[in-house]
């Protein structure tokens, strides 16, 4: 844990008036006003990062980017692995395969 993460945990504990559980993660969001979000797990923290990145890059937090073709698409149209590794369209299994996909309505 780096110094910035420790600082955010201390700020969150001070705001709550109690210690954080070891599995809780503090997400610091730099929006119009800096905000600390106490996440119940690392998985939830990573979901916040994915949604924040999608919102910033394509304007829709519900989309995910295929790591192969680099297109943004609805979550129902890309395979989102449970343990990370990046989302992929089913037709984009090879990193060398560059298939153009269009946004389809969610399944």
Low-confidence stretches: 97-102
Please bin the fraction of helical residues.
25-40%
- Average predicted local confidence, pLDDT: 83
| Count of alpha and pi helical runs | 2
How many DSSP-defined strands?
Answer: 4
* Morphology: elongated
As a whole number of angstroms, the C-alpha radius of gyration is 17 Å
Note the gap between the termini: 39 Å
Order of adjacent strands in the largest pleated sheet: 1-2
- Pattern of helices and strands: HEEHEE
What fraction of residues sit in β-strands?
A: 15-25%
Q: Quick one: biggest sheet?
A: 2 strands, antiparallel
Provide the structure class.
alpha+beta
How many separate domains make up the residues?
Answer: 2
Report on this model:
The chain has 107 residues and is of the alpha+beta class. It folds into two domains: 3-59, no CATH class; 60-107, no CATH class. It has two helices and four strands, in the order H-E-E-H-E-E. The protein has helices spanning 3-16, 42-58; strands at residues 25-30, 34-39, 63-65, 72-74. The strands form two sheets. Strands 1-2 form a two-stranded antiparallel ribbon. Strand 3 (63-65) and strand 4 (72-74) form a beta hairpin. It is elongated and about 50 Å long. The chain starts with a helix and ends in a 33-residue tail after the last strand. Residues 97-102 have low confidence and may be disordered.
């Amino acid at each position: 844990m780096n110094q910035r993460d420790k600082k955010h945990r201390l700020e969150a504990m001070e705001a709550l008036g109690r210690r954080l559980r070891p599995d809780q993660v503090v997400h610091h969001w730099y929006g119009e006003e800096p905000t600390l979000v106490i996440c119940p797990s690392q998985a939830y923290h990573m979901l916040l990062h994915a949604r924040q990145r999608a919102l910033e890059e394509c304007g829709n937090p519900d989309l995910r980017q295929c790591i192969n073709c680099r297109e943004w698409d609805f979550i129902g149209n890309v395979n989102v692995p449970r343990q990370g590794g990046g989302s992929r369209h089913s037709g984009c299994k090879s990193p060398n395969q560059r298939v153009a996909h269009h946004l389809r309505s969610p399944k």
